[in-house]
Write a structure and sequence with these properties.
3-stranded antiparallel β-sheet, about 375 residues, alpha/beta
Length: about 375
């Protein structure tokens, strides 16, 4: 049992309307959505269904294995004090180790006892580098400030190396930031800006990582299992081995609504007709899609994940141009259903379309008109 204050938060509001909710995937986004549909959306647990292509739930947070064959954990998250949405979710989920505590309390207590304090953030030539000095020149600072102030519509398809001078990529800051968040110079300047703005408050502790929090166990056991247990206790259904292959979509007046959901389970193709009041949530892709495994004796093979086939099918509905060569399915039926997208890793359906050729041509030639007007840093190509 949880504490009295925790139990009071678990009581769901009264059902606002009889409706079903269907969620594609069982990653942290879909699990969180299902939890809030119960807690704050007024839906009954048995009316919520999550479809998982694999036989293991958790998406990227799928730690599993055994001593003989080894262990695998494809994804993980570093927390810090501003993970407000995550902490709110974990605040009403009982801990897997102590049901009298919430998963949030468990995480916070563990951080207080075992806080992060790196003493060798960077090493060069066998020697620890003093990274209290981030290695910026004045130009680097100005370019970083300008990037954070520039609208994304202006940055568009620029890369990080289009924006900064070569010295920036030799600074201690770049070595720390790029290895922490997996950035390369040719990655999106927009994504780099988003991370800088999101984690700006960590700059002062970037040399020790003291601002980073960790869960007591791996995040599958510390987060995913407790959330799934909470959902199942309320009757939420997890359909395992169920691959969603398509969703019939009606587009009217710029509004996308779903009318039918197609999935394959147990070797059979199945269809769900969606009622007008039903909800459909889609996580569009995964940061660990196309994962393949090797060993000390074998090379990992290339695999094409079914998730991308599904996202590609949705992305081409109503779109004449697409980089993905997939069938275009668009059916017009009478019963619309609200359709939501849970953005995964900053992705959008629009990103499946080719970038605007006009801007691409302008960026090759140099500044755009907006760049000149704002007097921002010009393109810097390697």
């Amino acid at each position: 049992m949880c504490s009295a204050s925790l139990v009071s938060r678990l009581d769901p509001p009264k059902q606002v309307a009889p409706r079903n909710a269907y969620l594609v995937g069982t990653g942290i986004a879909a699990l969180a959505a299902a939890a809030y549909l119960v807690k704050e959306g007024g839906l009954s647990g048995p009316n919520i269904v999550l479809f998982e292509q694999m036989e293991l739930f958790g998406g990227s947070l799928d730690a599993h294995g055994n001593p003989k064959d080894g262990y695998v954990m494809r994804g993980g998250r570093m927390f810090e004090e501003r993970f407000n949405c995550t902490y709110d979710l974990l605040s009403f989920i009982p801990s897997i180790a102590d049901p009298m505590k919430s998963a949030k309390d468990e995480l916070m207590e563990f951080h207080q006892e075992f806080f992060w304090n790196d003493r060798a953030r960077l090493v060069s030539g066998g020697q620890i580098v003093d990274v209290s000095d981030l290695g910026f020149r004045e130009r680097d600072r100005l370019d970083l400030i300008a990037l954070c102030a520039t609208p994304e519509s202006v940055l568009d398809i620029r890369t990080i190396q289009d924006w900064f001078e070569p010295h920036f990529f030799r600074s201690n800051f770049w070595f720390i930031w790029s290895t922490t968040f997996a950035f390369a110079p040719w990655h999106s300047a927009i994504e780099f800006k988003r991370y800088c703005l999101r984690f700006l408050h960590l700059f002062s502790t970037i040399d020790t990582m003291a601002g980073i929090y960790r869960t007591q166990f791996n995040q599958f056991d510390a987060m995913v299992r407790p959330i799934v247990a909470w959902l199942k206790a309320r009757g939420v259904r997890l359909e395992m081995g169920a691959e969603v292959t398509d969703i019939d979509v009606v587009i009217e007046g710029g509004q996308k609504t779903a009318t039918r959901l197609h999935y394959r389970q147990g070797g059979e193709d199945r269809v769900i007709d969606l009622a007008e009041q039903d909800l459909v949530f889609v996580t569009n892709g995964s940061m660990t899609s196309d994962t393949s495994y090797g060993s000390m004796d074998t090379v990992s093979g290339a695999e094409y994940d079914a998730k991308w086939r599904f996202v590609g099918t949705l992305g081409t509905s109503g779109c004449q141009e697409s980089r993905l060569r997939v069938p275009r399915r668009l059916r017009f039926q009478d019963r619309p259903v609200q359709m939501g997208i849970l953005h995964s890793h900053g992705g959008r359906f629009e990103l499946l379309r080719p970038a605007r050729s006009l801007f691409r041509q302008q960026s090759r030639q140099g500044r755009t008109g907006n760049d000149q007007r704002l007097q921002l840093a010009p393109d810097r190509r390697p």
